[in-house]
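User: Structure with magnesium ion, tokens only please.
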Amino acid sequence: MHSFFHPKAMGFFERELPGLVPGVCVKNLVKIFEPYGRPAVDRLNITFYENQITAFLGPNGAGKTTTLSIVTGLLPPTSGTVLIGGKDVETSLDAIRQSLGLCPQHNILFHHLTVAEHILFYAQLKGKSWGEAQLEMEAVLEDTGLHHRRNEEAQHLSGGMQRKLSVAIAFVGDAKVVVLDEPTSGVDPYSRRSIWDLLLKYRPGRTIIMSTHHMDEADLLGDRIAIISQGRLYCSGTPLFLKKCFGTGFYLTLVRRTKTIQSHRVGCKVGVCPERPSLGTIT
Ligand SMILES: Nc1ncnc2c1ncn2[C@@H]1O[C@H](COP(=O)(O)OP(=O)(O)OP(=O)(O)O)[C@@H](O)[C@H]1O
Ligand SMILES: [Mg+2]
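Assistant:
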């Protein structure tokens, strides 16, 4: 990816369509951890829109978690600004947090709280009354399919279920801006699909930012895809736009030995069994 997205390869940014409402605006964001070190985030400019899922794609160490940590106010930027609903994260974090949800890259769950207690806890933390929190808990348990594990302590859930709970928590309390850092990492294909369904169900009215390593996931879920490498944004746009920029389509190469086919044709005479066709490479 590094050589492909050479800094000179600019121009892979789709023009913004009219009518989109910006949910999160990242402006000239820089994060340097060590003095004089290479920036983890390097003059990043990107807008995430309401009613959309933006897939934030990039290799290990690209700066995804660092960016998302600054967006959610966990880390201060070295320079640059992040605006959520027009408010600066650095100065108005208390107001912003009310409508902000986060699923961190590594689950942060309370070992001895049950699934239901987690949702109740976070709903009340976001300002819901006991009654409202209970209603929300029932809805979330239903949507996530976790209702049959409602009384299970988090420490006894499988890794995939813990991840699902972490994703669900990010949406609790009517969060309008939801940041998900690799929500499907370490999750089996079946649970991954149910997390996808959950994200699509919860998308209306929200600005969802989801980091991932999976191109298929970005393609399927992302209304927009933004690709970051070495702290810099190299392209962003709808999946269709990016396919137009880079895609040459998919080629399926099927390989079968001609000799075998011929042998098969005369197989009854010479008694040769056909070999199984082998799948070639997908390039
Ligand atoms: N607390 C820290 N102190 C020093 N350097 C850090 C710190 N956190 C991140 N980095 C560095 O910043 C760069 C970006 O890291 P980051 O975790 O944001 O990448 P990422 O895209 O989330 O990677 P991954 O896909 O592996 O999660 C890396 O070079 C990393 O070593
Ligand atoms: Mg990360």
